[in-house]
Amino acid sequence: MNKKTVIVYTSTHHGNTKKLLDAIASHEDVELVNVIGNEKYDLSEYDRIGIASGVAFGKYYPQMLEFLKNNLPENKSVFFIHSAGDPRKSHADSGLKIAESKNCRCLGIFYCKGFDTFGPFKLIGGINKNYPNEENMEQAVKFYRELEANI
Predict the structure, then answer these.
(1) Which of 40, 90, 118, 126 is the most exposed place for a label (fewest CB within 10 A)?
(2) Cβ–Cβ contacts within 10 Å for residue 32, how many?
(3) Residue of 85, 81, 84 lying closest to 96 (CA atoms)
(4) Is this prediction's pTM over 0.90?
(5) 53 and 26 in contact (C-beta within 8 Å)?
């Protein structure tokens, strides 16, 4: 059963997270909406809302968090996708907290390494230069398909 799905995202540093979303969108029927330039966006018509962001200082970008506070409807099914230089599931906590405050149900969290040149990493040319890689993109598509299968 196909659910109408949107993935709202912000992927500004190197576009790592957007690469994952493009892989999903090339195989599945999802709408991608960049929160930059769409600060007000009606998400009420969607059955599922993906929340995808780069990570700064251990949490989702401030633009994403502000977008969620202002636009995420109550009682929706949500999922999270992110990439980071040192990826951790807990990086989604800032967005998850907002979603939980709106009684949203978390379907899952996908995360992987992303190319990172922030701060001191810039001096050495960055870390994770080849990430996300093809395998990460395939894993992101698999993650999405498993969401679809478990509805």
Answers:
(1) 40
(2) 15
(3) 81
(4) no
(5) no
